[in-house]
């Protein structure tokens, strides 16, 4: 097994200083932005300077911890009593939860911190001890992500190799398609679906990763392309419209995607375009695998119809972001000049003339396996839904 190459970082911390890489500017410039407040974190998540379900949960948790740490250092008023801590903390958690609606990891993180608050209050702890518990729990939310990503990547990778072998293949030379960006930029490190692809590469099983551009935000062409390049994983970009053609003309062994929310029956919300890929994969009998941490499974939602789908501002479907092309020779001044280019005609009715859901729901019956850090769930023969009890 090759050593894991250093992936990109979405968040870096130094004491209570938090910085995120502005993903709106990647891959042409790498700029870190300091997150100095809860409002900064909320804005960065809402405007997609940081995105990816686990990464936004990690940032929310770290910003929350830093806010409490600053308060403790300054002997803030909320340290007056346990009730004062509660009155201070609850609105912050509620506010962070409103930043983006579909990725349940953010809600799972804020619910987990609320549960810590309630447990510490019930245990009769004083204000400082309650804050210490909350800060520790918030750091855990961010820190535990990398380890579980590696676990699920291994579960899913080994499972896929076995399936390919059972179907008469050698289990190596695998070609895998992914959608969106699910690597270290979307998580605290290693990634979910892109983690599985990385694992296949590290174990010598991967021939090539294919990835869709993922319009309109281009998480594929801007972020996954950069991650695969840094990891030196052989890869091929395709436009979102080329999935069918790819399956018709190339031997693709699996489609592997992340998730923003998985309902109790296995219906899965993920980046817009995932459903299209699943439908075409089913037609071609290509395994379709969802890789996501347990915190992405929302047992309170029975099926996909209950998953809230975020619609992004219409203007975002009319723009592309990138750098001026061709760049000046020899990487001279302006080589990474950013451009945001309008691709629709002036006068297009933004209020009525644009459909821009950020996610779609892939029904469970199109999903072959759901992988979490606990293992791999598959549907029983003849069943169209999942029993996720073994993997949550
Ligand atoms: O809108 P985004 O870029 O936050 O959407 C990201 C995705 O849909 C990812 O596939 C999902 O969050 C899983 S990231 C490990």
UniProtKB/TrEMBL annotation:
One of its GO terms (biological process) is L-methionine salvage from methylthioadenosine. It comes from Mycena metata. Its EC number is 5.3.1.23. Catalyzes the interconversion of methylthioribose-1-phosphate (MTR-1-P) into methylthioribulose-1-phosphate (MTRu-1-P). Coiled coil: none annotated. SUPFAM superfamilies: NagB/RpiA/CoA transferase-like. The active site is at 260 (proton donor). This is Methylthioribose-1-phosphate isomerase. Belongs to the eIF-2B alpha/beta/delta subunits family. MtnA subfamily. Pfam families: IF-2B.
